[in-house]
Write a structure and sequence with these properties.
heterotrimer; A: 259 residues; mainly alpha; 7 helices; B: 151 residues; alpha+beta; OB fold (Dihydrolipoamide Acetyltransferase, E2P); 3 helices; 7 strands; extended
Chain lengths: 259, 151, 47
């Protein structure tokens, strides 16, 4: 099985047995805290009123998109580097990217739902919004590319290169509000001055959102990775079975399939 | 008896085209967003000074643009078909004639981005801008209403 | 729509999206496990 061939497999195996359970519990608990802080404890914003409660999901979702694509890039680089090459890195890259696409999509939809009441438009053709939409389609395309059948090594290699190329858009998205004039506001936490401009219980709600979504990401990543490993094992077995069948048809005694 | 070529069995290609098409559509979407959307809007708005200066140089040009500034306090006048107000960036002013209801968060001092065009041939020092969409450009400051804005 | 409408809509949608994704992972994992011997089934703990 691919998971046992080194790379992140062994470490993941050790931590995840207990980790999944702890992480799952932590995720559910922190999401519950987020609901309480975000919908009930947090005051409405002095300008935006209750609409600010959409920020507690929109900003963490965008953070998870960055994080997920960061993990995808790191895993892709580790796959491309000969000394650390392992099919498991490729599996991890794909698993993380899928979660990234989910959260990029959420970021866009939540941003739209937030933009309508506070900007007065659902969509703005500004650098932040458009570069985020570009990010969504870049990694959706990456997921499609991963599914184009090919030799596993060829597929992993080209996926890794595509993932690293797509990652160029992440800093563009992040700095778009500094580099260009946008309707979108600048960063309120990781801004140029590193001076958070969010105060009081609003800051706690946002922080709890970031924490809860980070736990959720790690939980989903572990689950998605496990699923990918199993599906790859099924594919491998199907392949072996097909080969065995062909050999039987050809009246040749079954031979171990070279891997 | 010859061994069957392993490659033939190993590479079923049932959905190959589907994923190539999906990937191609994503690439097309990326291209459309960058070329069709972003290239024309990379400078999302002009300041009032930039807009008024450009209009002064070509008063008959009624190209669409977005004009950004703050609503001058006390300048807002409701009309049956919309609202008029003065928008300023601190140095230059323009009168905005907006058709339709202003947004919910529109008020004195609000930072706005108005979409529309300058009135053709208007050579006044404070030219009139015909707007059909007002957006509010928020800062990235969030706080409860009780916290003093002046800190 | 009021601000509350957008907020409730956004939070509901987020909940549905996350629950939907977890549900899909769970269903696919369960299906995958049926095709594999116990030693290749990976970790089955969900919580």
């Amino acid at each position: 099985m691919r998971v046992a061939t080194g790379g992140p497999g062994k470490a993941a195996e050790f931590w995840a047995r207990r980790g999944t359970i702890v992480l799952g519990g932590l995720t559910v608990a922190s999401l519950a805290v987020l609901v309480v802080l975000g919908l009930f404890v947090s005051d409405p914003d002095y300008q935006q009123g209750d609409a600010v409660r959409l920020m507690y999901l929109h900003v963490p979702a965008a953070w998870i998109a960055y994080l997920a694509y960061g993990v995808t890039s790191l895993a892709s680089a580790l796959y491309l580097w000969k000394r650390t090459r392992s099919p498991a890195w490729d599996t991890l890259a794909g698993a993380s990217a899928e979660i990234g696409v989910l959260f990029t999509g959420l970021t866009l939809v939540l941003g739209s739902l937030w933009g309508r009441p506070v900007w007065n438009v659902w969509w703005a053709w500004d650098a932040r919004v458009v570069s985020t939409a570009v990010l969504f389609f870049l990694y959706l395309g990456y997921l499609a590319l991963r599914r184009v059948p090919a030799d596993p090594a060829v597929r992993a290699r080209r996926s890794a290169i595509a993932a690293l190329a797509a990652f160029v858009d992440v800093p563009v998205v992040h700095f778009s509000v500094e580099w260009w004039r946008t309707l979108h506001q600048k960063g309120s936490v990781f801004n140029r001055e590193l001076n958070p401009t969010i105060q009081g219980n609003l800051a706690w709600a946002l922080l709890s959102g970031v924490f809860a979504f980070t736990c959720l990401y790690l939980y989903l990543l572990e689950r998605r990775y496990q699923l990918a490993v199993m599906e790859e094992a099924i594919e491998e077995r199907a392949l072996e079975a097909a080969i065995a069948e062909r050999r039987a048809e050809a009246d040749v005694p079954p031979v171990r399939v070279p891997s | 008896m010859i061994d069957p070529p392993v490659v033939l069995v190993a590479r079923p290609k049932p959905k190959r085209m589907r994923y190539i098409v999906a990937g191609g559509l994503c690439a097309a979407a990326v291209l459309f967003l960058i070329v069709g959307g972003l290239s024309r809007n990379i400078v999302y708005f002009r300041t009032v000074s930039e807009g008024v200066t450009a209009h002064g140089k070509a008063p008959d040009d009624t190209g669409r643009l977005r004009l950004a500034g703050a609503v001058l306090t006390g300048s807002v006048e409701r009309r049956p078909d919309g609202v008029t107000f003065v928008v300023t960036d601190g140095t230059t002013r323009a009168r905005v004639l907006h058709h339709g209801d202003p947004p919910e968060l529109f008020k004195d001092g609000a930072p706005v981005v108005c979409e529309g065009h300058f009135v053709k041939g208007d050579r006044a020092a404070v030219p009139t801008f015909d707007s059909d969409r007002i957006m509010i450009k928020h800062g990235a400051e969030y706080r409860p209403p009780s916290v003093d804005a002046s800190k | 729509m009021t601000d509350a409408g957008y907020v409730i809509g956004g939070w509901t949608l987020t909940g549905v999206a996350i629950a939907g994704y977890v549900g899909r992972l769970w269903a696919r994992s369960r299906r995958a496990r049926r095709f594999l011997p116990p030693d290749e089934q990976g970790r089955s703990e969900w919580m």
